[in-house]
Amino acid sequence: xxxxxxxxxxxxxxxxxxxxxxxxxxxxxxxxxxxxxxxxxxxxxxxxxxxxxxxxxxxxxxxxxxxxxxxxxxxxxxxxxxxxxxxxxxxxxxxxxxxxxxxxxxxxxxxxxxxxxxxxxxxxxxxxxxxxxxxxxxxxxxxxxxxxxxxxxxxxxxxxxxxxxxxxxxxxxxxxxxxxxxxxxxx
Length: 187
Description:
The chain is mostly helical. Helices cover 73% and strands 0% of the residues. The chain contains 8 helices and no strands. The protein is elongated and about 55 Å long.
């Protein structure tokens, strides 16, 4: 994992000296996250990989302008979003944001006995089900915050919506997930 400083240094090395090793470090740092994001839009691994490959091709072809980019993370997510949408329009199969295609990485609590293990597994199942049932945009925003750990401001920039919208969607998601998990555990 590269720090913000290391990302900036590698951006400069790519922009000024066309250093492929620095570009490769940036590629390795961002690839999986961008692929998951693209996958949430285009729905297939192959299409997501193609989109991310194109993102990095755009980045390399525009390397001279890298120094003008203030936040590479947001910049790459915006390119990924735009290229993913373009990919969808090519295939004419616009379906959005399936959690089944994304890898939710839930870390279960340390289990002390079989009952706790069953309870934890049930809670994870209910959580995943609740996330799956969120409205598409709400689900995307929730996953970008929780899984990709993006800040509200970054997500607002990527999706071209206000920070207040992000806040409202997160409140909706949290309320629905909490209610669904609590209801299932009680009922």
